[in-house]
């Protein structure tokens, strides 16, 4: 998986400046928060999250058939 290094934010920075995280999500679509220099969390917009849930539901519906 390729991750844009412009959207990697250390946990400490995210805690101290969450508005920066939100701004980057608005600009880039997602932010990856690092804990101990390893990707740990992804922050996405609600519309992206909603789309993911719809996709997941459709995949579950297909496998249930």
Automatic annotation (TrEMBL):
It comes from the Bacteria. Pfam families: PhdYeFM_antitox. Coiled coil: none annotated. Belongs to the phD/YefM antitoxin family. Antitoxin component of a type II toxin-antitoxin (TA) system. This is Antitoxin. It comes from Eisenbergiella tayi.
